Amino acid sequence: MIHRGPLQKIRRSWLLVPASNVELVRTAHLSGADVIVLDLAELVPEADKPLARETIEDSIQIVTAGGAEVFVQVDPELIYADLRASVWPDLAGIVISKIESPQQMEEAHQLLKQLEEERGLLPKSLEIVAALETAQGNHQGYEIAVASPRVWGMTLGRADLVMDLRSEPSGEIHLMQYLMQRLITLSNAAGVVPLGAWWRDPDRGLLAKPENTYTAGFRGRAIGFKGSMCINAEQVGPLNQAFTPTDFEVSAAGSLLEAYRDGVSQGMAVVKWDERLIDRGTAAQAQSLIDLGVNCTLRDESKEAAFEGKPVPAP
Contact 4/291 with Cβ under 8 angstroms? Predict the structure, then answer.
């Protein structure tokens, strides 16, 4: 028999918000994002980083008003300053931009451990997403993923990869399709979650229009991604929709499971259904899809409840 698994963390949409932009921070909770990533590494001018660090604790409180989880994107070259500024209650974890080695991951792990102890957070409560944005980082992707038990997921950095890997004449990034599929393989081998979407030329991913964002997210889910970063609030809804199983998919999975269970009750190991042969592994995938649909609904309900019941703190 296929048993329902534990509740999943539903993190379909990851909205990147410059921590220095007061207005974007103030309105980020309206987007409906599953995760809001307050960025200190990529989108903040160097001159504005000190002030952004000073206000990050308040920003964390502000962006949780819509029920989103909050991560902070940090620079591995400024990891101490960024983490000292960012580790506070209600922080779920960090995204490490341009990480290139397991040693950097180990350093982040130890700093998070120290800060959890200092600030009264539960041990190992803070998770890490590794952003593989360079050739070196991609080369050591598996070693990076297993360097800390805090690593929850991995993602690629499309724009930064252009600088290392160049672009093909078609406009696509060199080897991008291979790198996306490799990321999914590495993530599954390491037991972490792959994040990304199947962006296609001429889209620049983070700047794609909503309809193209949905297509990229839907294609991404089909090959194994579980969610994606975005930079515009209008991309959040399409990503949430794309990474949520459709009613048709859930219905088909239910019919498949019913046929499989009927066959198993009759002593079959493999069941023919709708021109397909269904075994235990296929049935487990169907159950996983049904569970995902249920958990997505619960996640949306929790965000709606949080949005209705929690006023936005004053800046």
Answer: yes
Q: Cβ(270)–Cβ(277) under 8 Å?
A: yes
Residue type, 38: L
Report which residue type is found at 80.
Answer: Y
Could you give the count of Cα atoms lying within 13 Å of 218 in the half-sphere of its Cβ?
13
What confidence tier does 25 reach under pLDDT thresholds 50, 70, 90?
very high
What is the model's pTM?
0.90
Backbone angles phi, psi at 73, to 5 degrees: -90, 125
Place of tokens 């019913």: 258
- Estimate to the nearest angstrom the gap between the alpha carbon of 113 and the chain centroid: 22
3-state secondary structure of 271: strand
- Position 27, amino acid: T
pLDDT, tens only, 71-108: 999 999 999 999 999 999 999 999 999 999 999 999 99
Among 33-42, 103-112, 267-276, where is mean pLDDT lowest? 267-276
Query: Do 50 and 71 contact (CB within 8 A), yes or no?
Result: no
The one-letter amino acid at 295: N
Domains of the chain as residue ranges with CATH: 13-244 (3.20.20.60)
Residues 238, 217: Cα–Cα separation, whole Å: 8
CA angle 144, 150, 154 (to 5 degrees): 50
